[in-house]
Structures are given as C-alpha cells and as structure tokens.
Amino acid sequence: MGSDPQYAKYPLLPLAQHIFTLSNPASAKSLQQASLKSLQDAITDHKMAPLYRYLAHPAEGIINGAGESTSQTSKPPGRKPSAAGMVAMKHSIPKIDMPWDEALYDKLKAENDAELEGYKKEAEEAEEQAGDTEVQAARGKRAEFWARVGDKDKAITAYEELFEKTGILGTKIDLVLAIIRMALFYGDKLLVKKHIERAKTLVDSGGDWDRRNRLKAYQGLYLLTVRSYNLAAPLLLDSLSTFTSYELCSYSNLVVYAVLAGSVSLKRVDFKSKVVDAPEIKAILGDGEDKLSALSGALSAGPGADEDMHDATEASSATPQPAKTAVNLTNLGASTGAPEVEAAVDFSSLSQLVSSLYTGSYRSFFGALAAVEVTFLSQDRYLYEHRGWFVREMRLRAYQQLLQSYRVVGLESMANDFGVSVDFLDRDLAKFIAADRIPCTIDRVTGKGVIETNRPDDKNKQYNDVVKQGDQLITKLQKYGQAVRLRGSERA
C-alpha cells in the first residue's frame, strides 16, 4: 500500500471556492455573505497574511472593489491577469467587498514572521544536532507554512527544495501533488498540466497503488477544467469506487463531476452501465429502493445476489425514507473538521437529468438541464467557465438521440416533445446542422415543417475516406517526385 500521504492538508481548497463565490454574479447575496465570513474566519484562524493582502488590499487586491483603508490609492477597473483563475469573470465586480484592515494585516504578518523565525531556528538546530530526517521535517514545516498562509510562489519554491533533498519516491509524489493543489487553488492551469505530467512520470516509475489512485482523481479534475470531458469521464468514474483524495474534493463533489462528464461524453451503452446503473452514483443520486440497494451492495452483487439480501432490502424499503442527500459545493475538499453552515444543494435536478436523458423524457430533460445549470454549473469554480458549452452539448446529445431513431420527424412534434417553441427548435437545430453535428435537413416550405435525417452509409463513408486520403497521398507523391527531379538536375 505504501506510506501514508504527506503534505496533504494545505492549501485549503474550500477557500478558493469561497473566493470564486464572492466574484460570481450568479451567486445569491446570502451565499456571498456566508463565503465572506468563512474566508475572513479562515484568514484569521490560519494567520493568512499573504492571501489577505492578495485578496483585499485597496490597490493590489483582486476581490476588494472599494476598499476600506485610509490609503487614497485608486484601483483601476478589472482584474489582474494572475487573478483570472480565481474569480468568476475577468471584469466581475463583487456584490460584497472584502474590507481591508491595515491593523489586522500587520498583526497577521508579525505572527507569520515570528512563526517563520521559529521554523528557521528549528532547521538550524536540526542541521547542527540531528540527522537528515529531522532537517527534512523542519523544511517540510516551513513549506506547509507557506501553503497554509497562501503564498503560492514561496510555497512552490519550498516544495521544490524539499523535492530535491528527498530520495523517497512516495514523498516526491506527495510533494508534486501538493504543488498541483497550490496551482489549482490559484487556477494556474499551465502549472497544473506541467506537474500532472511530472506526477505521472513518478508514479509510472514505481509509485504505490494509493498514490496512483489519487493521481487519477487529480488528472480527471484537471481535464474537467480544460473541457476535456471525454478524457475526464473514465478517470473520474473509475475513482468513485476507490476514492481517497479528500484533500482535493469531497466524495459527493466527485460524483457530481463524474456524472456530468459521463453524461456529456459517454456512448449510450457505457452511459447506462457506468452512470445510470453505477452503485456508487445511485448511492448519492438514487431514490428509495435504488439508493438502499446501492448502499447495501445488492446492486453490485448482480442478479445472483442472495435472496436474504433481497428480502432485507424489501423490508427496509417499507420504512419511510429520508430526503435526498444534499451537499454544498462550496465545501469543496472539506474532509476534516465540522462542516460549515451553508445552504445545501439538492441532487434531484442532477438525478432527473440522468434518468430523463436515458429514458427519452425530453421535456423533463430540458427542465432538469436548466436546473443543473443554475444549481451546479453556475456555482462551482471548476464547472463555471464551460457551462455554456456543456448545456449546448447536452442539447445536441438529446437531439441526436431522438433523431437517430427516425427517418422523418415533424418539427412541431419534436418541439412538443422537448417543450420548446418551433422557432427555437428550428434555430437551435440549424446551428448544429450548419456545423455538421447533426446529419439532417429541415424543410419548412411545405406544411409545418419536417426534419429529414441523412443517415451516413458506412460503405459510402469508407469510399469517400479512401478517395480523400488517396488524393492527399497522390499530392504528397507528386511533391516528392518534384523534389527528387530537382535534386537530380542539380547533380547533373
């Protein structure tokens, strides 16, 4: 199994969600107030002077729009480039400012300096009187200190110094994962990508199962942030049964990410087996007997499950069931300590999205998709950026699913199935048809309009591919022949 994970406590990723919420125009004011309080409490409790200055300083802060300070320095509108990954929109102005208190900052900075001086003395004493293990431990405390107070550059520098000094592969992987979380905290996707590849190289060189499994969740979450949902889906879905990366996100959030990625990217057969019928997902999204069966393990046991288990399930399902579990996405990554008091988010819209898409209840599907956009896509820092793309791709998937079953469909009939107007459906389909995403044509000249699908013939497609590739090959050969003749003439 390997040694226990190290350097996994900091940074506190839920704080990044609170920062995002403060700048999110789609967040309710009450939620922003709760996020502000949580952020202020964390800054005070963990003595986060660098993060406080980065967020709230009147001249340099990324959150504070007006500032509350005696300084007369004016701040230009917009955001610093370094804040692009932390706030919802580049030019978004928060409804609630984060007040700047110069006295509080000086107090936190003084406490930081005193704590840092203590770590420095501890490291010096370890170098003089103890061995390499104690020296590394002192350096590790200093690295975690910088990660705790929110100083990205100094934390990464300290982690890199530790990485160079250690020879244990498991510790090296843990240090790289800590750097990845630091980059995720600040929304630095390029840095995340670089160290994901670095971690994969280390894990492939002999990493233990636990770290290999944790990296899978890290990689899946990163792919989600760069809109590679098709690559993220298998990694996130595979992580459900063996998830241990609670420093990265909560299990319930992982389920949300896995369901959304699977819904938009998996083929229907895989969608059924890996999302609709997955026991881990039913344990969160299921209702009544389905949820109870998933929690008891009867679903994973398959058709051969013991009759005793079936009888126990039936007896238990007769009792009143509690309401569907609700999880607050702003508690992202909170795995220890008491949960924060915030408005809960219900999973019912996500559950309805999955079931209605699979059963073909398109009117319910469109309603659930709108609810998912409001409840999840517009509130989560990892999903917000690509919410428009996700909604568009899910509409496309529903259109494709219905049209592939028919040769000709009435435009009005299809509009009624989806619960939208004929004009909206006409405009929406036209965009996908023009982009060659749906092989069909719309005829509104006669009657109320019909949609005729043009199903691609495999043999014709293969023939066209051969002709196209053959033309490309002939062109390349002609260019090569010309180059050979030129070289021959030069030699002559």
Can you walk through the features of this model?
The chain has helices at 13-23, 29-45, 49-56, 102-129, 132-149, 152-165, 169-185, 189-204, 209-225, 229-239, 251-265, 268-276, 279-285, 288-296, 298-301, 307-317, 348-359, 362-377, 387-403, 411-418, 422-434, 458-491; strands at residues 408-410, 440-443, 450-453. It is built from 22 helices and 3 strands. The chain has a 3-stranded antiparallel β-sheet. Helices cover 63% and strands 2% of the residues. It has 492 residues and is an all-alpha fold. The relative contact order is 0.07. α3 (49-56) packs antiparallel against α4. A hairpin with a 6-residue loop joins β2 (440-443) and β3 (450-453). The longest helix is centred in the last third of the chain and has 34 residues, at 458-491.
